[in-house]
Structure formats: C-alpha cells, structure tokens
C-alpha cells in the first residue's frame, strides 16, 4: 500500500457501545470535527501513518481504542475521544514479511475489527505481497502492477494489546484461487476488507472486499473486478467465510 502520509486525521465523534454498532436508523453527527491523530506531532515510528481507515472500539476496561493501520500497527487509547493518547511502545501487530506469496503473510494492515465483549477482538487483515521486493517477480517499471493480495484473520484475547493468527496460510480468509503471476502485470487478489456488520436475524457476520481487473481490462482468469460480499457465522474460523 502506498505510504501516503495523512498529516491530520479527523474523526467524527459519535457514541459507541461495547463492540460495533448495529444502527436502527439514521446517524446524526453532533458537534464539530476534532483532530484525533496528527502525524507531525503524534508520530513516534517511521511507519506510524494512517494508511487505511482507522478502526475504533470500546474495550472491556471501558477504554476507546483507535487502530492506526499500516504495516506495523499501533493504537491510541483513552476514556473518550478528547483523551486519546498514542502508545509508542511495541506495535500491536508487526508484519511477518514472509517471502512466500502463497502464505499471505508479508505486509499486513489491520483493516476491520469486531468485538462482542471488549476482551476478545477479531480482525480482518489486508495482506499484501510485493513482487517488486523480489528479483524476477516484477516485470513492470510500475510497482503497482506487481502486487498480490489476500485477506487474513487475526485475534486478540488481551483487550487488543496483541494480536495473533494461525500458522500461515491457515489464517487465510479470502483471495483469488490463483497463484501470483508476474506476467499479468497487474494487482491480483482480494483487497480492502470493510467493517464487519452483524445481521440482526440470520446469525451471519458480513464484510465487503474488492477484486480488480487487470491493467489491460481483462479479468484475472475467471475472477472479474468489483465489490464482493462474504459472510460467516463463526468469526474465529478463517476458513468459514
């Protein structure tokens, strides 16, 4: 993912209960925008930039946590949005940099979280493998055309202090059923998992992701480009989606 640095992140503040919200109707924004994280003043790591949609939830200690997504993932904590502070110690997730693209375990962005009790947190990870980091795996001068992607699952059992996953590639949730092919000269795989939402009656949790057409407008074999939906009844099982 391109390392675009947001110099300021503004988050609209709304009430959040334990876990994620199921909205029965319209959401009304109250109050003005507030700057929650400013890279220039709050960054304490070379990778602590907001390279994705921040996730937030209230944990079992009644603290709000804000996930700062990048290849090393840090968090902010506080009793409310006016009192958040960055934790500059160890990252809650550090990318594994596994060189095998079939493991989906190279550069990892925590893109979506879900918790029922604030103690156990499940997360969907946007997992990138970069062909341009390896000799012979990028046949284009444009590094964006040498990219293989999957979605994986992580879990925290310590209120979000650390996240772990099954031995790769058993943590894989979703990708295209094809190996990386440098000759396609295009991004390949499943990208950008959305927030997880729960259906109120059918027992399923849902999320969106997207796939891309090749740069020449063709599909990656039988997989076309577009937005897709996936679902599961068991958030702890990556193979159940």
Provide the helix percentage: under 10%
Can you tell me the CATH topology?
A: Tachylectin-2, Chain A
In CATH, the architecture is: 5 Propeller
DSSP E strands, number: 15
Shape: globular
- Termini separation comes to 24 Å
Order of helices and strands: EEHEEEEEEEEEEEEE
What fraction strand?
Answer: 25-35%
Largest sheet report:
5 strands, antiparallel
What structural class should be given to the helix and strand makeup?
mainly beta
For this structure, what is the CATH class?
A: Mainly Beta
Low-confidence stretches: 1-19
Could you outline the blueprint of secondary structure elements for this entry?
Layout: E1 9-11, E2 34-37, H1 39-42, E3 55-58, E4 64-68, E5 72-78, E6 85-86, E7 93-94, E8 107-115, E9 121-130, E10 147-156, E11 172-174, E12 188-189, E13 197-198, E14 205-211, E15 226-232
Parallel strand pairs: 10-12
Antiparallel strand pairs: 1-2, 3-4, 4-5, 5-6, 5-7, 8-9, 9-10, 10-11, 13-14, 14-15
